């Protein structure tokens, strides 16, 4: 079974989930009754720790939307979330056994179905888990799917992904996902804040991304972003910063076919590259 190469990069390990449960589109039933009390406790403790860190670091849109997840003292039933999410933005979440290949991933997003891994990390992985689990996927990704502009961006990204896949540009476009939906920063009235799911579900990277003088922060530029490789096993060396969710929508509206050609001819950059042309954002 191919490992999902879109979001977390090609992996040498086989993915961890049980893919025999999956339908042809990689979705499966959320195996809710299989969660143990220890699993629910892990979720509750992660939720408690992470929600206490958000103030002053997380995007206000995220903080406002977080209660839409509902219960915080156990792993939610995806159906309960969908009862609120469908009327809010027309999105629903669907269970998957874990990482999935790029084309079915893009197809789910294009049809406003967000794949959520249903298993949860073991207690010994409390601070760091190698693959995304149900806590990362729910806490990190689902609140902003209640935001109409952001929700539309993710759907359009999925449609753009199907096109990119057929152009052989899936890996280039996946960098845009990585540096926006996973690790994006936004300038709000109160200052720099995180809106990317990989940051919001991480206890250490939340503060690092917003406040560390060692991280590089650049105003989002499509070509610069899609040229830039990323780190899957360490804090990002570079974060791309937007001023509004509408900006994501606007910069991705054009036909990407010539943009992929430009990205290819300019060549890749390392995760920590710094260019004279970068529009750097300084702290304070
Ligand atoms: N507009 C892009 C194209 O034509 C598709 C896209 C949309 C990519 C939204 C990312 C986000 O290829
Ligand atoms: Fe994610």
Automatic annotation (TrEMBL):
Residues 1-284 form the Biopterin-dependent aromatic amino acid hydroxylase family profile domain. Belongs to the biopterin-dependent aromatic amino acid hydroxylase family. InterPro entries: ArAA_hydroxylase, ArAA_hydroxylase_Fe/CU_BS, ArAA_hydroxylase_sf, Aro-AA_hydroxylase_C_sf, Aromatic-AA_hydroxylase_C, Phe-4-hydroxylase_mono. Fe cation binds at residues 136, 141, 182. This is Phenylalanine-4-hydroxylase. Pathway: Amino-acid degradation; L-phenylalanine degradation; acetoacetate and fumarate from L-phenylalanine: step 1/6. It catalyses: (6R)-L-erythro-5,6,7,8-tetrahydrobiopterin + L-phenylalanine + O2 = (4aS,6R)-4a-hydroxy-L-erythro-5,6,7,8-tetrahydrobiopterin + L-tyrosine. It is an enzyme of class 1 (oxidoreductase). The keyword Oxidoreductase applies. SUPFAM superfamilies: Aromatic aminoacid monoxygenases, catalytic and oligomerization domains. Its cofactor is Fe(2+). One of its GO terms (biological process) is L-phenylalanine catabolic process. Its EC number is 1.14.16.1. One of its GO terms (molecular function) is phenylalanine 4-monooxygenase activity. Keywords: Iron, Metal-binding, Monooxygenase, Oxidoreductase, Phenylalanine catabolism. Residues 1-21 are annotated as: Disordered. Pfam families: Biopterin_H (PF00351).
């Amino acid at each position: 079974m191919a490992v999902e190469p879109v979001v977390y990069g090609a992996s040498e390990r086989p993915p961890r989930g049980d893919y025999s449960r999956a339908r042809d589109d990689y979705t499966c039933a959320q195996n809710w009754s299989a969660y143990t009390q220890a699993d629910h406790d892990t979720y509750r403790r992660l939720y408690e720790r992470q929600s206490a860190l958000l103030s002053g670091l997380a995007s206000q849109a995220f903080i406002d939307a977080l209660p839409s997840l509902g219960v915080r003292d156990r792993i939610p039933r995806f159906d309960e979330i969908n009862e609120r999410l469908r009327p809010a933005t027309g999105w629903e979440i669907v269970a998957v056994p874990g990482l999935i290949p790029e084309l079915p991933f893009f197809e789910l997003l294009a049809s406003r179905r967000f794949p959520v891994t249903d298993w949860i990390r073991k207690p010994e992985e409390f601070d760091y888990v190698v693959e995304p689990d149900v806590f990362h996927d729910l806490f990190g990704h689902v609140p902003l799917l209640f935001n109409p502009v952001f929700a539309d961006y993710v759907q359009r990204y999925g449609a753009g992904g199907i096109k990119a896949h057929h152009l052989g540009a899936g890996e280039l476009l996946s960098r845009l996902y990585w540096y926006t939906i996973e690790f994006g920063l936004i300038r709000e009235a109160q200052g720099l804040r995180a809106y990317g799911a990989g940051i919001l579900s991480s206890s250490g990277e939340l503060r690092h991304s917003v406040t560390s003088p060692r991280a590089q922060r650049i105003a989002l530029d499509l070509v610069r972003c899609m040229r830039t490789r990323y780190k899957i096993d360490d804090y990002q060396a570079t974060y791309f910063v937007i001023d509004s969710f509408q900006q994501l929508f606007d910069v991705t509206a054009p036909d990407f076919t010539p943009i992929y050609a430009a990205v290819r001819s300019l060549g890749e950059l390392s995760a920590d590259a710094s260019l004279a042309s970068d529009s750097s954002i300084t702290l304070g």
